[in-house]
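At this stage, I put together a protein sequence along with its fold in token form, as given directly below:
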Amino acid sequence: MGWFIFLVLVVGAIAAYKYRVPLLAKLLGQPEHRIQRAIERRKGNKG
């Protein structure tokens, strides 16, 4: 049973990462294009 819960958490985390832009847009009440631009700006600053 513990492995099943762990598997569900891992799959949920992967899905949340894959769909992070629409999820963040819905949570923050912002348009998706603003979220996408902010994520890309942060990626550019890492290098």
